[in-house]
Every structure is written in structure tokens, then in C-alpha cells.
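Do me a favour: review this protein, sequence plus C-alpha cells, and tell me how the chain folds. Record follows.
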Amino acid sequence: MATSLEAGVARADITPAVGIPMVGFAGRGPSTDVHDPLYATCLALRDGDDVAFLVQCDLLQLQADTVADIRRHIEAATGVPGDRVMLACTHTHYGPSVDRDEATIVHAYRAHLAHQLAGAASEALGDMREAQLGLAWGESDIAINRRERREDGSIWLGNNPDGPVDRSLGVARIETPGGYPLACLVNFACHPVSQSGRMQSLSADFPGSARDVVEELTGAPMLYLQGACGDLNPVAMDHAYEPARTLGVRLGCEVVNLWERISTDAAEGVATSDTTESLPRYRYGSEEDARELAAELSQQIARLEAAEGNEGSLWWANRRRDGAVSAAESWASGEPLEPVEAEMSALRFGGLALASAPAEIFTENGALVKRESPADDTFFLGYTNGSIGYVPTRAAYPEGGYEVTHACRVDPDAGDMINDACLRVLADVTA
């Protein structure tokens, strides 16, 4: 018997209590107020017996054990296997700590979040309607490469107008055969850091502002699916909400422009696939390089401990020294470091395929996966089903910079391994 695609959508308000520790910038302190709410939006997809969930959260990230716990809750509530749940974060830097802090309020928030997402999945599954699908591609200019090269050749967080940027903006329109809007999926790559590093107001940043525009003008619940933005920042950043507002309006208007031009057709098929890769842990090139870095960081830590108000810098320095010491010991002993486990997954419904990685992927690699995908239309999602930190391109490692020297846990082979894994799971769901 012929089947066709069905879709349902539900949303939960996941704004935490004021006072919860924030995550995204070290040493910032707890939240002081709520500027705009944080949401989780669940899209349920079904074709016959094949069911999957796509859940978009206004959060920085979710660690793998938290993803596993949420999946267990959703499976218990809906009967849908947890491996058919894709949990994608927008990567807003103005949200709560979920699983990197031992504060009681964080534990309570994490536990409640799992119940909220399970409830949203149940609600979405209980409101399924026959769905049609259409897609369009455009561009947005709100992102810029942030790996700025100084005169001495060093790489700093700044603006690099000549650096690579994937400006592609993907929009999927999901509606009933009668034209009732069910969901608008938006895939774009840009770090949600437009309010800079001192802001303590909870906020969805520019994806939230874009969502307000899109939902007001289309009537469709919007899911912002963050792309490969590891080396991309917004073109405007300031200690205020205004950059988030105006960038979101600019992006949202581009989305609406595309939405209004999309024609939808009947769609069929829901398929998922996933694979877990053991990525080699970062060893800093050689034993000598690792030991030199550890010694430099020990001196830096001593200076920071002698002063006050350096909690954020001290956290980073200790974290980096631990990694360098472990790498040096690995070189000396010949024993490999414990690998970094990463789940790559794919979801296809109708003619649209989504590929995801649990990492901060550089824009070039996300573009490569979309370009080489066996599907005609592919969205690439970072910050999905886990969080392992930055995965630079191979060429970025000798250049250095924050993404390499501070926040990377994997060796240069990791980017290519993730690309290959994404293409394999895409092949599975499009076979």
C-alpha cells in the first residue's frame, strides 16, 4: 500500500530560572535576567511504520550522556527508538549550562529538560498530518570568517573578510496538502555570539530574532538548524541586544523571501542512519611540542593564580595544560590516548537529507559534505547529538588560533574522518 509523509510539530519553553550558570564564555557568571525565551521545537516525521524526531533546542550544546538520557525519555514516552531522535542545538552563547556544571540548579534543569522534550515529542506525534515538502536555497551575508591573521602571522579571533564562508541558506517548507503551514526548517552557519562575551541575559540570540520574523509572516513554527560555523562569527557584535535583533531580522526576511517562492509536493519516505567514530585525540604534533606547551601553560597558570579575577583564563589554561601533559606522556610511552567518540547521523524525509556531527565544524568541511552528498538537497548540522569541541580543517592546525590551540580535542585526521562518516550515513538514507 502506498504511503505518504506525515508531520507534526510541538514546542516547549525551556527558559531556565534566572541565576543558573551560563555557558559559552568562561568566567562570565550566572544569568541575571531573561531577555527573550529559549524554546525547544520538535518535528515528528512518519511514513507508515517509519518514525523519526528532529528536536531543535535553543542551547549551546548537549553532551553525549545527556543526549542518551533525553533519548531514553523520548523512547519511553513515544515508543520510538532513541536512535531515531536527532537533537540539534542552535549553539546560542546566552543559554544555561546543562551538563558542564555541578550546581544543583543545573542538575534540576537537566532533569526537567528531558521530561519537557519527551512531552514535546509525544505532543508532536499525537498531532500528525499529511505533509507536503518544498525546498529553496538562497544566501545571507550576516556571517564572516573570524580567523584574523595579524602582521606577525598569528591567528586571532577577529574578522577575516577574505576567509572562507559558506553563505548558503537552506529553507524547507512543510505544509498540508491544503496549504496549512506545519514547519519551516532553516539551515545556516553563523556563531550566535552577537551580544559579545559579557552578556548575562538569557537569549536565543539572532536565531530567536529570525524566528520571530519568520513565524509572524509565515505562520509556520521555525526550526533553526545550525550549520558548520566553527570559524564563522556574526558581522556585528556588541554588548547589547541590537546586533541580535538586526541580524535576525535580516536573516528572517531572507527566509521569508525564499518561503514565499517555494512550491510543495507530496513526499514520501523517512529514514535514519548513524555511526560512531573513534577520533584520534590531539597530540600537538610531537613530544617536544607538547612538553613545551605544558611548560608555558604552567608558567601562565602561576601568574593567573597570583592575581584575582582570572577564573575564565585559569580554567582554559588548566584544561590546555592537562591535554598537553597527556599528549607528552603518550608520545613518551607509545601508548595511544583514549579516542574521542563522536556520533554522526543522517535523517532523510522526502527529498531532503540532513547530516550531522557533534562538533564545531569549520565552514569548509560542512560545505564539502553538502556538495558531495548523494542527496540533491542536504542540510549540514553541527552541535547535534553530542559535543566534542572544535574540529578544524587539516590546513588550520599549523596556523594555530583559538579553535586549534584552546578548544580542540582531536588530531588533524578527525575532520576527514567526520566528512567520510557523514557521507556514509547519507548514502545509507538515500539508498
